[in-house]
């Protein structure tokens, strides 16, 4: 995640093997499906609702996603700081999590 100042929400889970971070939009149905999917599978994760950030934070998030080779689209899921998944794709998420 980009900054300690922006509102990062941590969701606890039994499975802490992987570092899972997401950039989401608070009103996005796909983002909420991704959050619920990870929670239901027991994975610990953290997320930032980009639409609730200020303009400076939104710029930092866009640059972070682009630096990782992605495009600003939500949800953007980052697993172990190396796997970037754009959109809600259960198969890609589970593959990156080794499940």
Description:
The protein is of the alpha+beta class and 99 residues long. It has a single domain (9-96), classed as Glutaredoxin, CATH 3.40.30. 32% of the residues lie in helices and 21% in strands. The chain contains three helices and five strands; from the N terminus they run E-E-H-E-H-E-E-H. The protein has helices spanning 29-40, 55-67, 90-96; strands at 9-11, 20-24, 45-49, 76-79, 83-86. The protein has a five-stranded mixed sheet, with helices on one face. The model has no long low-confidence stretch (mean pLDDT 93).
Task: List its traits.
Glutaredoxin; alpha+beta; five-stranded mixed sheet; 3 helices; 5 strands; 99 residues
Briefly, what is this?
With 99 residues, this protein is an alpha+beta fold.
Topology readout:
Blueprint: E1 9-11, E2 20-24, H1 29-40, E3 45-49, H2 55-67, E4 76-79, E5 83-86, H3 90-96
Parallel strand pairs: 2-3
Antiparallel strand pairs: 1-3, 2-4, 4-5
- Provide mean pLDDT, rounded: 93
CATH class: Alpha Beta
Question: What form results from the Cα inertia axes?
Answer: globular
Number of strands: 5
Supply the CATH architecture.
3-Layer(aba) Sandwich
Low-confidence stretches: none
Main beta sheet strand tally, sense and closure: 5 strands, mixed
CATH superfamily: Glutaredoxin
Helix proportion of residues, in percent?
25-40%
In what range is the share of β-strand residues?
15-25%
Reading the helices and strands in chain order gives: EEHEHEEH
Helical run tally: 3
Structural class: alpha+beta
CATH level 3 topology: Glutaredoxin
| Strand line-up across the major sheet | 1-3-2-4-5
Radius of gyration: 12 Å
